[in-house]
Design goal:
CATH architecture of the largest domain: 3-Layer(aba) Sandwich
Helix content: 25-40%
Largest sheet: 6 strands, mixed
Radius of gyration: 25 Å
Shape: globular
CATH superfamily of the largest domain: NIF3 (NGG1p interacting factor 3)-like
Distance between the termini: 47 Å
Number of helices: 12
Number of strands: 15
Strand content: 25-35%
């Protein structure tokens, strides 16, 4: 397969536009036009992971954490980042990273995978993104309204929470007159035309605008499509940081850390003073201390994340139970996500879970 085909499948779920400003997701090593036969799926790309890819005959590594975060000014093998990149190039192995853009999606994202491991239901984004939605208004002849609506939906517009194919439609009359260089599909050049039209309005995320327009152009009959797109301040329920969900049955607070430890296959769990019962749970894979206040305001009984510092535990204010099973432990199931996304689109493409343990932290009991 061509590498760009695999990338397109992943980015249809986790658009690059959703990654945080500091991030460096995307194709880090290799050409999108290269042929790939087998991919190694991993959380981190280390020298041992590249060696594993070579041994397993993989020509692609798909990783959650980008090996390149800062600009590389030289490649002489002076640190592990340079050595990984050199080894990948030497062995003709591409490296593709999908990081915070996979964190920030509601469906098939890092946090939805954690939620499934914990048995959470009725999930929603903990801190939705703002100002990432567009209202598109399209004017079309009444006779073509159904086809235009279908094209907008097909392009990715019209989704609101758990609803899809959402639109607002208003009947009216439109007028237009084509200049001497026009070739109107309806009416005559140089003469004003009055036509029964429909005004169709839909919502779409900014990162889907090009796809929606490409789809619209195939269905709209006008030589010049009559539309306008307006940015909105609304929150976007399908994208953002963290996740909130509900346990099927409440768990007593004193037993909840053990539950987290077992479900997330963690070595240890650091936690604050237990609450009486845990029913509503907030989560954030990786380093999520920045969402503690959001978890508090959400009414969650517990918040699960990694990399919480000593003083950040005080932010619980005895109102919420913070549980920290570790960064690696909360994100280790991301490789399952990659496999699921690719198998849906390419069921015969070979993927392999990396057996290299990349967690840099060990525990002594």
């Amino acid at each position: 397969m061509k590498l760009f085909e695999l990338i397109e499948a992943i980015e249809k779920v986790a658009s690059p536009a959703l990654q945080e400003d500091y991030d460096n997701s995307g194709l880090l090593v290799g050409s999108p036009q290269s042929d790939v036969k087998k991919a190694l799926l991993t959380l981190d790309t280390t020298e041992a992971v590249v060696e594993e890819a070579v041994a397993e005959g993989c020509d692609l590594i798909i990783t959650h954490h980008p090996i390149i975060f800062k600009g590389l000014k030289r490649l002489n093998g002076s640190d592990y980042v340079e050595r990984v990149v050199l080894a990948a190039i030497k062995n003709n192995i591409a490296i593709y990273a999908c990081h915070t853009n996979l964190d920030n999606v509601l469906k098939q994202g890092v946090n939805s995978k954690i939620a499934s491991k914990l048995g959470l239901r009725d999930t929603q984004i903990l801190r939705p993104m703002h100002s990432e939605l567009i209202k598109m208004t399209v004017f079309t002849p009444h006779t073509h309204a159904d086809a235009v609506r279908e094209s907008l939906f097909a392009g990715g517009a019209g989704n609101v929470g758990n609803y899809d194919e959402c639109s607002f439609n208003l009947h009216g009359q439109g007028t237009f007159r084509g200049g001497e260089n026009t070739n109107p599909v309806i009416g005559n050049r140089g003469k004003r035309t009055t036509l029964d039209e429909q005004r169709v309005e839909v919502l779409l995320p900014k990162n889907r605008f090009k796809q929606v327009m490409d789809s619209l152009r195939k269905a709209h009959p006008y030589e010049e499509i009559a539309y306008y797109a307006s940015p909105l301040e609304n929150t976007w329920q399908d994208a953002g940081s963290g996740m909130l969900g509900v346990l099927k049955k409440p768990i007593q607070g004193e037993y909840f850390p053990a539950y987290v430890k077992e479900r997330l296959r963690a070595e240890v769990v650091r936690f604050t003073k237990p609450v009486e019962w845990v029913r509503k749970v907030a989560i954030c894979g990786g380093s999520g201390a920045f969402l503690i206040k959001n978890a508090l305001h959400s009414g969650a009984d517990a918040y699960i994340t990694g990399d919480v510092k000593y003083h950040e535990f005080f932010d619980a204010e005895n109102r919420i139970m913070i549980c920290d099973p570790g960064h690696y432990e909360t994100e280790q199931f991301t490789i399952e996500l990659f496999a699921e996304i690719l198998s849906e689109k390419f069921p015969n493409f070979a993927t392999r879970f990396s057996h290299t343990y990349t967690n840099p932290i060990y525990y002594h009991f």
